[in-house]
Design a protein that fits this description.
This protein has 323 residues and is an alpha/beta fold. Helix content is 50%, strand content 9%. It has a five-stranded mixed beta sheet with strand order 3-4-5-6-7, with helices on both faces. A two-stranded parallel sheet has the order 1-2. Strand 1, helix 2 and strand 2 form a beta-alpha-beta unit. The protein starts with 7 loop residues before the first helix and ends in a 7-residue tail after the last helix. It binds 6-phosphogluconic acid (6PG). The site of 6-phosphogluconic acid has 15 residues, from helix 10, helix 13 and helix 15. 6-phosphogluconic acid binds next to helix 10, helix 13 and helix 15. Pfam families: 6PGD, NAD_binding_2. InterPro entries: 3-OH-isobutyrate_DH-rel_CS (IPR002204), 6-PGluconate_DH-like_C_sf (IPR008927), 6DGDH_YqeC (IPR004849), 6PGD_dom2 (IPR013328), 6PGDH_C (IPR006114), 6PGDH_NADP-bd (IPR006115), NAD(P)-bd_dom_sf (IPR036291), Pgluconate_DH (IPR006183). This is Decarboxylating 6-phosphogluconate dehydrogenase.
Length: 323
């Protein structure tokens, strides 16, 4: 496991709890020491890692998308031995995966992209994974995905889904979406949808909150309890969801969400989703508007923007853009 931050560190721990052996590396020596303390084999560099890995080695890269992931995979490309497998479990752009898979294949290395959802809750709940790569490699990695995934848990089988002819992995919380790049493509669209859902809640709570505005006639003003509204919607309503659960948690802590400025960051995935919609000529009105709402949140802030920030903090520990 390369990259022992909020995601990589906890994924390594979940894998070890499931009986897997982990060689751990991060530029941050304290993170390596902490994981070694939990049972991982520490590595001091990517070179050192190679000596400690079995053959074929499985290099799971869990770093922020962009330059750091790119340079790490390039270095692994020189250190790895033919037959090794390189996994990018971050939020990389899918066209980068397609390019890297080709580049590594020339060295007889296998590349797998894993879109990983679940944030800081994944260690206990498991991680939902959307996987791209060649079938043989993805099948070989199955014990790893099986351990990381949530499993069927208490979610009842979808009525009409026939287990006889359906892929059992989907019910356990992971899919082999297709060739290299397809895992991150599916995850990218997941995140685009995430923006739209979050924005819908944010706007709804904003309208509720301002129902006591003096712009309204006095008898039409209501001083609504947002904390209780979030709570009641969790129970049997049509719009119950995990994002609503997280909103309810944030509002239970502070109904005014004072800890948030409302300047909402983004990883770029919302933008890539819109880019894909434009390339494919598919209308994506809501997703586009929700991306632009985030850009607007950095100029002036509504209460709804604070709701967005509270959700991002809730699922991923993500912080806002500093003011
Ligand atoms: O499924 C997940 O666990 C999330 O999607 C996660 O992968 C992503 O890091 C956040 O959504 C932040 O994304 P933004 O920074 O674009 O809000």
């Amino acid at each position: 496991m390369i990259g022992l931050g909020r995601m990589g560190g906890n994924m390594a721990r979940r894998l070890m709890a499931g009986g897997h052996e982990i060689v751990a590396y991060d530029r941050n020596e304290e993170a390596v020491a902490a994981l070694a303390n939990d049972g991982a084999i520490p590595a001091s560099s990517l070179d050192d890692m190679r000596d400690k890995l079995d053959t074929p080695a499985i290099w799971w890269v869990m770093l922020p998308a962009g330059d750091i992931t790119e340079s790490t995979i390039a270095t692994i490309g020189t250190d790895a031995k033919p037959g090794d497998i390189v996994i990018d479990g971050g939020n990389s752009f899918y066209k980068d995966d397609i390019r890297r898979a080709k580049m590594l294949a020339e060295k007889d290395l296998h590349y797998v992209d894993v879109g990983t959802s679940g944030g800081v809750w994944g260690k206990e709940r498991g991680y939902c994974m959307m996987i791209g790569g060649d079938k043989e490699t993805v099948d070989l990695l199955d014990p790893i995905f099986d351990t990381l995934a949530p499993g069927t848990g208490e979610i009842v089988r979808t009525p009409g889904r026939n287990p006889e002819n359906a892929d059992p992995r989907a019910e356990k919380g992971y899919i082999h979406a297709g060739p290299a790049g397809s895992g991150h493509f599916v995850k990218m669209i997941h995140n685009g949808i995430e923006y739209g859902l979050m924005q819908a809640y944010a706007e709804g709570f904003d309208i509720l909150k301002s129902k006591n505005t003096d712009k309204l006639p006095e008898e039409e003003r209501f001083d609504l309890n947002l904390t209780d509204i979030a709570e009641v919607w969790r129970r049997g309503s049509v719009i119950s969801s995990w994002l609503l659960d997280l909103t309810a948690i944030a509002l239970a802590k502070d109904g005014m969400l004072e800890q948030f400025s409302g300047s909402v960051a983004d990883s770029g995935e919302g933008q890539w989703t819109i880019d894909a919609a434009m390339e494919q000529k598919v209308p994506a009105n809501v997703l586009t508007a929700s991306l632009f709402a985030r850009y607007r949140s950095r100029i002036d802030h509504t209460f709804g923007d604070k709701v967005l920030s509270a959700m991002r903090y809730g699922f991923g520990g993500h912080v806002e853009i500093p003011q």
